[in-house]
């Protein structure tokens, strides 16, 4: 079953007449339960594409764009769908900067993930039931941070905070997780833990994961499929094993990021059958 579908998504930020689009007619479909890496050089449109999926960014109005997630329309013709709140409840968006409330406990931060399901008043007052607290502790257990529940979020390392953000998405009962450069500011060990956590929830819970990554070797190690963008167009879309050295060089040119992971699998050189880079 299709979890995510984009058709004809074009996005131009500038209103100047000759401004170039950041995304150019993107058509993409992702199956439920897949784990997909969005790769490509800086500025190629990865984050912008991801933000279209949760309706944080709207496509151009005149391009006939449509974005659906889990069968619900998120945006159509550059307009947000009316019942976006319900759709967003199923989508966990994780950011490079974690977006936790540093002065609150780790547990409270995770509990906030369930806010879309409880009354605004109860949420504002910070009243949570024993059942909700148990669920939040279970989510923390899943990401290996249960013993940090009562610490302030700001006391945790970057990698730990990122895992709290993942626990918050679990508490939210998200069926799709969109992770925007979740390891960009982390050291290799923390990066591995975060990617392992994402892969674990993908495999065990069947949650669809789309993750933007700068380091191709992490994509190769943890993701099943790669979608590569260059200048706002999809230039590669296939099983991650199909992506070879030559294609990576073509994709990044002289901007190719360093490969950080010492455990990266050796890459097999396969045919260039799908790469459309000119
Ligand atoms: N809100 C915005 N207003 C204007 N331009 C924007 C906005 N957001 C992104 N852009 C521009 O769109 C282009 C694509 O940005 P985006 O962040 O999607 O790329 P990216 O591939 O995620 O890059 P990086 O890997 O460096 O994060 C860039 O040129 C960026 O400057």
TrEMBL record:
Entries under PROSITE patterns matching the protein: ABC_TRANSPORTER_1, ABC_TRANSPORTER_2
Protein localization: Cell inner membrane
Key words of the record: ATP-binding, Cell membrane, Membrane, Nucleotide-binding, Translocase, Transport
Residues spanning the signal sequence: none
Pfam families on file: ABC_tran
Organismal lineage: Bacteria, Pseudomonadati, Pseudomonadota, Gammaproteobacteria, Chromatiales
Primary subcellular site in the record, as a coarse category: membrane
InterPro entries per UniProt: AAA+_ATPase (IPR003593), ABC_transporter-like_ATP-bd (IPR003439), ABC_transporter-like_CS (IPR017871), ABC_transpr_PhnC (IPR012693), MetN_ABC_transporter-like (IPR050086), P-loop_NTPase (IPR027417)
Protein name, UniProt field: ABC transporter domain-containing protein
Any one GO MF annotation of this record: ABC-type phosphonate transporter activity
Residues of the ABC transporter domain: 4-256
GO cellular component: plasma membrane
Recorded topology in the membrane: Peripheral membrane protein
């Amino acid at each position: 079953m299709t979890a995510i579908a984009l058709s004809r998504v074009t996005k131009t930020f500038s209103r100047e007449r000759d401004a170039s689009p950041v995304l150019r007619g993107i058509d993409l479909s992702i199956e439920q339960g897949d784990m997909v890496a969005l790769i490509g050089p800086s500025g190629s449109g990865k984050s912008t594409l991801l933000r279209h999926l949760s309706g944080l960014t709207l496509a151009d109005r005149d391009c006939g764009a449509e974005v659906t997630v889990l069968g619900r329309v998120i945006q159509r013709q550059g307009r947000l769908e009316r019942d976006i709140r319900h759709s967003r409840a199923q989508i966990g968006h994780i950011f490079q900067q974690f977006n936790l409330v540093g002065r609150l406990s780790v547990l409270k931060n995770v509990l906030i993930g369930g806010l879309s399901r409880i009354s605004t008043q109860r949420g504002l007052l910070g009243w949570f039931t024993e059942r909700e607290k148990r669920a939040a502790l279970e989510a923390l257990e899943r990401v290996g941070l249960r013993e940090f529940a009562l610490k302030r979020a700001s006391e945790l390392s970057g990698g730990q905070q990122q895992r709290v953000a993942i626990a918050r998405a679990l508490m939210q009962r998200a069926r799709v997780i969109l992770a925007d450069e979740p390891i960009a500011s982390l050291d290799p060990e923390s990066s591995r833990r975060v990617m392992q956590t994402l892969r674990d929830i993908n495999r065990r819970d069947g949650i669809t994961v789309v993750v933007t990554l700068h380091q191709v070797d992490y994509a190769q190690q943890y993701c099943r499929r790669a979608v590569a963008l260059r200048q706002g167009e999809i230039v590669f879309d296939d099983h991650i094993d199909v992506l070879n050295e030559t294609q990576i060089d073509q994709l990044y040119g002289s901007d190719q990021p360093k490969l950080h992971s010492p455990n990266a699998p050796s890459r097999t050189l396969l045919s260039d059958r799908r790469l459309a880079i000119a």
